[in-house]
């Protein structure tokens, strides 16, 4: 089960009424649970066998080469006898050397995520480091990373959680740049919640870090003719977002999706699914999400040059709504000791399954389990709109920094990021 409170996003207009003005969309109402039906056992057994095979291949591959700091991650819940580190299994430990930056000194940390600037007093939440059970994430070494990323283009695609990670990465890397003015948004744009594209350039390193807002990854469209009245707009599940061609030419490409695949953001807004010319009024959201992911898989397999582009997909970012209607948001002072089931998400499961059978390598950033403990790290009422508590987004600095440390550790352990 997942939940997500879009009211946390503030006062924007419904997505589906403004399909053509990109990014104009968010809704006010809270979301419901969305329960995905369980998979049948045939698929489960098949997946398991595929997984075993994949693990065997990964093992052979890894041990025939140099030993990277972190090995590839496959499935969270499997009991692998292979003695390798699952970087996404571990715990948070106190570390006084954190945080990695001061959001008030980073022009790319949006005000809404800068909890300290918005009045949060306790700072303990900024001082936790993720410690994988059987290995260590290399210390963040900004100068080494900036050198390695010289001339590269890193692209984030997804919803506001993707934007957070984008902001976090920029702020982390800016700590290694003396002249802060040498880092700028290429169109001079300010960060807003609806903006479709933001591109930040580190001019001394010829490094670009871009963000594309594409909450569903597939294309929205207008109401088809002769559709029932309740249909206000559609999602073309078989067509990737029309700006996807702008993502191809990148060195690192990080996707997310999931938070928008809820009845309150789709059906209740009059948004239904379409495949080809056929309207799929009865299609459940789970099926639609899987279909959209398969569209993404085909797109990636046919357009991504794995020699050039390192491909990542981030799983569901745990939220911490509580109470009967999941509308209550109580940010704690310390991480919780138990995950309360939040370390599992059907969205994450679907992503992991979709990615596993791909012909191009994709690294799953499985952040669901690590986020599950961090009931202390959400924006809460320390946002730009304190009247609407937010237990979905994270304070910066905070949890998204750790996503980036893991991302960077993968990139740094890669022998060859291609030369542009
Ligand atoms: C995982 O496998 C090990 C030995 O291979 C076994 O001792 C352990 O009980 C297993 N754990 C689970 C959760 O199945
Ligand atoms: C962050 O920087 C601001 C402005 O320079 C400063 O007032 C604040 O004390 C700093 N915060 C921390 C946690 O160091
Ligand atoms: C990627 O590299 C491999 C090995 O160097 C090569 O065989 C393959 O043709 C390359 N693929 C593309 C699309 O460039």
Automatic annotation (TrEMBL):
Q: Which organism is it from?
A: Hevea brasiliensis
The residues the entry assigns to the signal sequence are: none
What protein name applies here?
Trichome birefringence-like N-terminal domain-containing protein
- Keywords in alphabetical order: Membrane, Signal-anchor, Transmembrane, Transmembrane helix
Task: Give the transmembrane ranges.
Answer: 41-62
Q: How would you describe this protein's topology in the membrane? A: Single-pass membrane protein
Domain Trichome birefringence-like C-terminal per the UniProt entry, residue ranges? 137-409
Q: Name one Pfam family in it.
A: PMR5N
Indicate the principal place this protein occupies in or around the cell.
Answer: membrane
**What are the residue boundaries of the Trichome birefringence-like N-terminal domain, all occurrences included?**
84-136
* Compartments (UniProt record): Membrane
